[in-house]
Amino acid sequence: MADNREATWTDDDNLKEVLTKYVQQALDFLRREFLQYAWSIRSLDRRLRHFNIYNDRSIEVQDVKEAVEEELKGPGKLLGYRALHKKIRLEHGLNVTRDQVYDVMSELNPQSFEARGNVRAKRQRRKGNFTARGSNWVHSLDGHDKLMGYQSSTFPLAVYGCMDTASRKLLWLKVWVYNHDPKLIGRWCLEHFYETKIISAMLRVDKGTETGTMATMHAFLRRHHNDMDPHETVIYGPSTSNQIWKCSVYFLSKFEIDLPVTEEQLKEVATGSGVLNIPDDFLTLKFSEECERIFPDIDTINPDEWKEAYLHLKHNFTLSV
Fold first, then answer.
1. Which of 79, 193, 206, 250 is the most exposed place for a label (fewest CB within 10 A)?
2. Mind listing the pLDDT tens digit for each residue in 184-229?
3. What is the pLDDT of residues 37-87, one digit of tens each?
4. How far apart are CA 84 and CA 63, in angstroms?
5. What pLDDT score does 108 carry?
6. May I ask the CATH class of domain 138-273?
């Protein structure tokens, strides 16, 4: 029976033939009994809904409660809400929805629902803004690659940065031809740790593939401070709300979080994460030589000429990136 229930009905030609036969027979009976009305599959469906034959919305909740209570006093207490819903419709003649039976059962017998593991998924907690207690409490990291365009060819420069959510200070910003390598992002974080010897209490990132190594490094280093569960020091959320936070002036003045990290701890996390496998010079020798061939003296380029300089570089570049 299990095999039959799991069969793909969309490919069952026999089912299609039988359904067509029975529906046509039902329409023939209705045309014979009610000649004054036009009949088709759509009109049949519309009239079934109008007369509440599918689901009767006029049934009172109290009627459903009485039927469910009666069933729960007997063998019905062993049924799940799907089986009980079917029994309510067949034996009590109440054409109610499955959700109505579920709600009544959860109200009348919540213990059995909890024992079953609560069939319906729990409602997710409403998303809200996180609170930063002060500087270095939450660091928010995210990337931007919208300029790269189709197949990363329009403007192949990707940005990745880190910001303190309390002071909005930009802690570091990196520009490279891609920003999706988790070890590269982890290497940039490690460089910041080595420079400051301080780590934030919390890390706010999205669930991108590039954040895995960085989040693991942060949780690994935070386990040395023993102030909270290291797994809870990483906050995940969508990129669209990375700049949203709440912070009061009182907290800013009173709390300044400086959680130190030692060089030994940084060496341990650097070795374990594998971010040191990323070379210090991200550009290959041939790439650098080609750039120097086109622009032998980059100091002569003014900041307001960067756009023309880039287009000139792109037009005359002979190597494939």
1. 250
2. 999 999 999 999 999 999 999 988 888 889 999 999 999 988 888 8
3. 888 888 888 888 888 777 777 788 888 889 888 888 887 777 877 888 888
4. 15
5. 82
6. alpha beta
CB count in 10 Å sphere of residue 255: 16
Q: How many CB atoms lie within 10 A of CB 35?
A: 9
Radius of gyration, CA atoms only, the chain = 33
Torsion of CA 183, 188, 190, 193, to 10 degrees: -160
Give the tens place of pLDDT for each residue, 221-264.
Answer: 999 888 888 888 898 887 665 554 334 333 443 455 678 888 88
For 96-131, give one letter per residue: b (16+ CB within 10 A) or e.
Answer: bbeebbbbbbbeeeeebbeeeeeeeeeeeeeeeebe
Q: Give the residue carrying structure tokens 């386990």.
A: 223
- The packing angle between helices 61-72 and 81-91, to 10°, is 110
The stretches of 34-92 forming alpha helices (DSSP H) are: 41-50, 61-72, 81-91
Structural domain spans, the chain: 13-51, 61-116, 138-273, 285-316
- For residues 313 and 292, give the distance between their C-alpha atoms in angstroms, rounded to a whole number: 10
The residue type of 4 is N
Q: What pTM, to 2 d.p., does this model score? A: 0.50
